[in-house]
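Q: Joint fold for the lines below.
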Amino acid sequence: MRAKTAVVTGSATGIGRAVALRLSGDHNVVVNAKSNEDEGRRTVEEITAAGGSAVFIRSDVSTQQGVDQLFEAVREIFGRATVLVNNAGATRSAPLGSWDEAHWYDMLATNLVSCALTSQAFVGQLDRARAAIVNVSSARGIERYARIGVAAYSAAKAGVINLTGALAKALAPQVTVNVVSPGFVETRYFQRSDLTAEDEAMIDGWRKAVPIERFVDPDEIAAAVIFLAKEPAMTGANLVMDGGWTLTVS
Ligand SMILES: NC(=O)c1ccc[n+]([C@@H]2O[C@H](COP(=O)([O-])OP(=O)(O)OC[C@H]3O[C@@H](n4cnc5c(N)ncnc54)[C@H](OP(=O)(O)O)[C@@H]3O)[C@@H](O)[C@H]2O)c1
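A: Joint structure:
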């Protein structure tokens, strides 16, 4: 077992998984997902095969009950965590005219309420230990001309950036709180088996429209997360890692 422990929400796949793998070099890692147990266990196996220490906790961090389950497991297994990466999130689009309470509450709960509740529980178990929180927002959270179909997601991610500032100020100097805002990242969302040839052509068009002419790699976002988690002089910062994409939309 390592001396330090990190919790990475939504780390069965994608960006969270890349963050968990990187953090496992010097932390026990609590891997989490809402339902994808197979991929969660695969992440744990990869960490342990490389000599690291990790456990998978399935829980829904958009609910207080799920957050309590997660931190109960942290306490029982590792005692205390000093790094929290609030990465769990999901995008769902809904055109104006089709909006309903379920869509808006789902986007806000999954992407924003989860960060607030998890951060509170994390701080509650710290005692006086120095610690770091890194939130994962989105370039859509800072975008001035967000697409209307993803307005609920964008508003939730804008909330994550605002929440980061509030927490950073309230928790200094004990805890640093920063946020990473990725642009398009090469994850399962863009590699789904149900994509039509038309979808693929559209996604390829998006790739070419990014100034760096590709999407960002999950491991590049993970490197930014690790930097923010370890840099004591950074707090309240929003690190945009989007290959220049936001330059093209405002
Ligand atoms: N990919 C991009 O282009 C991109 C761009 C900007 C920002 N982001 C943000 O980056 C983060 C990671 O995204 P990703 O692309 O890596 O997505 P992903 O591969 O779909 O991973 C999302 C993870 O979050 C988990 N999750 C979702 N809701 C949860 C909940 N309520 N409780 C616990 N876990 C939950 C998922 O578990 P289950 O599969 O079990 O639900 C999964 O492990 C998200 O916050 C996303 O909004 C992504």
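Q: Anything notable?
A: Residues 101-124 form the longest helix (24 residues). The domain at 5-188+217-243 is CATH 3.40.50.720 (Rossmann fold).
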